[in-house]
Model the fold of this input.
Amino acid sequence: MKTNTLIVGVAMIVMLCSCNGSSNTRPPSPHRGIYHWKTTYNPTQWEKQWMADHHVDKMYIRLFDVERGIDAGYADWNMVPTATTRFLQPLPADIDVVPVVYITVDAIRTLNLARDKAHLVDTYARLIVKRIDEMMTEHWGFPVREVQLDCDWTTHTKTLYFALAQAIKTQLNLKGITLSATLRLHQLRIMEQATPDLDVLPFDRTLLMCYNTGRLQDPLTNNSILDIDDVMPYLKQYHSDSLPSTDVAYPVYGWGVEFDREGNFRKIVHSQNLEQSITLADSNNVVIREEWGNAKDIKKVQQSLPTLDIDHTTILYHLDSFNLSHYSYEDIEKFYSR
Done:
């Protein structure tokens, strides 16, 4: 009896020492998420099987964008919904679906021009929540537990965006729904510098976006999707206790960035057209920079992040068979292990 007790005690000490002594010993991500960021929901059989093979239990599906009203042809509206997703298949009943709404910075700026900002913020918050309710009732039919906002807000638009998010959060919380929001790395720096605001964040959760880290239109950029040298200056400032419960997202996609011979940005080349475009680059007198979310850099970012909360979700962007096929099963499993 004493011998067994001693053996168990030694084993526990060894386990504790190994956990504390190695930054690579981390618990796996409890939730595995994938973004769906297309205007038509019609996943292929390959994509469905991919989700099953990797035990994906959460899908973050973009429902619609919110843009500036005048640009969309509604002169009497400051903000209007556009690019609404069409559903050609039912949403999966065995996966937790998180509706996502993308809000443009121009839409937020229009609120700043209004006389009665507070009234408009409440009005558009109600309209956004109402539209989410109607779409999810029609296309899913199960209770929503989380809604996510995505906005590339800046220092100048933060106050109004936060006000809108707070109004949306108040309505959602009354329904028992949490509000999460994306957080880009440049926004993370703003948050870290604005310490007083951290106590009143209008979100229940944040999502740290570890992609689109470089200057896409700069010909000297190495990889605008993800470059570890671009990420590390931001992560050095990041402290996990300074934000609410935080999820994390990594890039599993690629594209080409086309420049003319003088180094002027021309366009983004879709990944499916990338190989042919690179082949024809010389004859078209252009230069194409091929970019992917590099697996090695993703793993380096994972190792550099501080400890995430025990109920966090690791999310990959996004559900597309052509892009996902560039990553091995083992790589995907390693991405989901953090």
